[in-house]
Fold each of these.
Amino acid sequence: MRTFIANLDCELSWARENSPGPHKHLPTPVQRAVSEFSHPLRVFTREGDTFFTLTDLGTAASAISEAEEVLVWGQTTEYAGKPSPKDLQAPWQERLWQLTCSSSIAAACNDRSFALSLGLPPSLELADVRIVTSMQDLDAYVAFAPLGPDQAWVAKAPWSASGREKLKRRGREVVGEQRAFATRLLKRYGKLLVEPWMKRIADFGVAGLIAESVADSIVFPPHQLLCDAGGVFRGIRVDDEGTRAMLRVHGDDLIDSAHTVVKALHAQGYRGPFGIDSFLYEVNGGTQLRAVCEINARMSFGHVARATAEASGQPTSDFTLGC
């Protein structure tokens, strides 16, 4: 028997185990909304498999314990994968079921600070990205660091999803409610990643699988991420002419950076699906690529969009998954 667990709140589990807290469960309305977003993940199941969303997990314990194979959105202590037998000749969708790792490794790889150690060329990185551990550190950064247009900057929790747990602001001071919010974030997480907020032109992603060896791992072609003005994910375009035009310029850098991420995740001991978020931004009258904005050492909607397009038989040109 196989079971799929759509634990799209896995970042909360990693935060609970690796930071001071407290970290509250998602409110019930949010859980319901996230559960609705989970249904496209059924593309990775077949007839006879069981499928659990966030709102189902309270009744899932016995089914999960009896399952011989378990695939999860993100590897956590509470919801861990049970791999199926290895078969490198299987389609990539089935290979997802063959890969797993510990929650501690997944948490370390999803910590936003992990992406700072990749050693990418400076031309592909965003300058002045730092980790702060106190309000004094944050005040010093905001006061003296080069910021984005209109003195814009953003502070992000080490583990969060869908644009939650971050403070985006303009100006050289952190005051009022924004200061109170930043103080609460630092108390809960112990550290924040802070960086200039740049004017984005386009967002991209690369998805793939980390296998038992680097050579057997998979990196898919880049796709376009559809995000709102605040950088919150809204959908995916697997392939279209506009995306291809941008990738003719930046595709090689995205793929090269993705292979660097594969090696780093593999060396850390991570096995399973991964995704990378990247973006193109304006700077000094031109454009520049930030090749790795975030690393998601878990399943992503990049996997879902690609699998859905393949399963439907649609040409991948002009396929969009909205969430």
Amino acid sequence: MKLVTYEIEHKIKLGALSKDEQWIYPLSSMGVDYGSMQELIENISQSELQLMEHYCGFEWGRIRGAAPLAEIRLLAPIPNPRQDVICLGINYMAHAEESARYKKEEFSGERPFAVYFSKRVSQAVASGEGIPSHRDIVEDLDYEAELAVIIGKEASHVKPEDVKDYIFGYTVINDVSARTLQNRHKQWYFGKSLDGFLPMGPCIATVDSIPYPPKLVIQSRVNGELRQDSNTELLIFGIDHVVSELSQGMTLKPGTIIATGTPAGVGMGFDPPRFLKPGDVVECTVEGIGTIKNTVLE
């Protein structure tokens, strides 16, 4: 099942995609009524999820308030995350190699420990909206297609084999990055956290809608040209490891977003680098979830 936050007739609602993904079914018409996706994640019951799955199999004419996908405006599924996004750095081996090459560093080919950092976000960017270029302070704007995991219930001291039970679902993000700032400050927080640097969507695919662990094609395109092309089964540190390790020392709250890292093919990985410029159209796709498409603004 794919859940969305959307706007119709100047009202923001929660909905589910029909099986053919041509219609949006409002959750309120299914007897499931929450004010936001965050509130839903925190409170929804298994019986409500089963009810929604049941309704999603109906024809659109049987759902009151159903609207064609073309007639609504999709928002980021969690428009205003309650906390910073937890990110994995260089979590695909090929990306680790291109990152070291860009920095002119030696790469041993070994990654004994995961690299974690956070990405501040006050407002996530929806598919179809623009990515600010921040040209006054950013010289080398880059893209990173990533699979993001969304925690569904409070997770503390979780065993790796139990991690799936704590996941609500998955979405696609573009971890937009300012390489100048990232390298100048010798850490990633500032260069990853400028306004508009978290395109997200187009939906949340619930955990049971995708075989676990996810082995999904992940790609990015710039102006239609394929740049990144990999599979999430190539993560160095998989979802079980990441959620379990983090939960040993911190409590992960419902709605926590964990970005699992990006594969090779980002702008800095080319020789010479191929960074984004105003007018460029970036598409990030994860198989089974969907595509987010954003244009770089002036």
Amino acid sequence: MLLTVDVGNTQIALGMFDGSELIGHWRVSTDPTATYDEIRLQLTGILGVDGFTQEDVGGLAVSSVVPAITATIRRVAPSVVAGPIVVVEPGTRTGMAIEIDNPREVGADRIVNSVAAREKYGSPVVVVDFGTSTNFDVVGTSGAYLGGAIAPGLEIGTNALIAGTAALRRVEFTAPRSVVGKGTVEAIQSGAIFGHAGLVDGIMDRICHEIAGTDAGDVTRVATGGLASTIVPHCRSVDTIDPYLTLEGLRIIYNLNQDHE
């Protein structure tokens, strides 16, 4: 079986695959200061609770935007995994051409998402990933990665609003009764939820028009990330939610690298 680990700035998503089937998935908070022992105990504990042992894990695939945790997972991996380790980074085979100014600077998670989206939905395809930031990643008609956009995530934007004001407070991320809030809480919720949905629709429309012109309707638009189910119901420009897209991409890239060994 294959363990996939996607380390984000806020959360770490993990998935266990038996062949192409996702048989287990978990989310934990990201702590860049976590020690070797803490991460080892966290990984073994998560797997152990669901009955997996080191002998069950025949490989590990990792994407990370937190270098400190990447380095620690590399050290921890031999005590958790009985097989090869693939860390997605510059030089890792992905099967995808990267057509941006500096291919080495693009985040591993963005490439992983794009590889999975092309494999599952064809091209052209746009992925919007709702995480700490809201990332848009574009795969063109040729199947190459063309770049994208990065916007402040829902939580970051709302937290900045609360921190910068004296009277506003944190709210639950649910849609209010109406876009016209009848109180401060509903007004904040309206701006957060409907405002972020509008951001997604606006950027998605521009991207699709730029890469497809009058045939923008031919572009598949996929959402993933922890907050996708909160925002997408209020968007008009997203075709589907694929919550495990990143984990699927890690599986695809892991297998590609094994095939070339």
Amino acid sequence: MHCPISRRALVLAVIAGLALAAAPALAQQKTIVKLGWTTSEGAQDPYAVGARAFKERVEAGSNGRIEVQLFPNRQLGDEKPMLEGMRLGTVDAGVITNAVIAQIEPAFQLNDLPFLYASEAQARGVLDGPLGQKLAARLESKGIKLLGWMEGGFRNMINNVRPVEKPEDVKGVKYRVMQNPVFIGMFSSLGGNAVPMAWGETFTAVQQGAIDGLEIPLAVIDQNKYFEVTKFLSITNHTYSAIPLLMAKRAFDRLPDDLKKVVIEAGAAATRAQREAMTKAATEVVARLEKAGMKINRVQDFQPFRTSVQSVYEQFKSSIGPELMQEALAAVK
């Protein structure tokens, strides 16, 4: 008489056991992607805007099978260590400045050439086309997948010495530049004193007067409070700041095919959203910086600057690749 109850109890116990066994397996199916960047998590910080847009789209597109965890303010390290981490597979993803990527793939120096792109629209057209795909393929061969050409806007000069209206105004001024030979070459060709320095040390160096200023996108000045330590902002638009969204190829390759598709589509959608947000923010940012006390001027004539930096194009032609450089120059004519 007790057998049916025992059998029922046994069946229930087996079901319960199977459910318990399945629970960790289901939990393990969620993929965590840790995404880092070095600037703030501010509402209009271009890196942060891009990171949040990617998180939102990946998590929605994967129905929660991928969780993107965000690490601003150098929590995963400076940009060079993050890139090395992606190559080794110890860092999953990041929004990284083009000039730093150029340290491991010199062809990326192309985007940092001074006064190459005349507008954001022109830069986007080149990078979303065949030339951008060639650059992405070169980076992928180094173990890093490019998911989107996000942007920081054009880079401009800020300092505590004088406004920049002509190349001579750069002479003798100590500018922090990224640890990248194109930027060092650019400021040297303009007669400036280029001081290569990691991002994490820059604010204090300006504050203490160890350097006179730096070159930086508008939104990054605003979101990282550089208006507190510099006086002059000159809209020089000398370099378009590409800040690609990157993922470790190892992390990407581990995903099943359907999630790879989700990640690629989310990268493209997040890039579009990030660019739109940057365009909208640009005019607001200039007004805010002026209100914060910065003295702002716009360069009226770029031709003297272009003439001054021609040697930089010659200097980096071989490391970028003459064909790539020619293709870019033809695309922006």
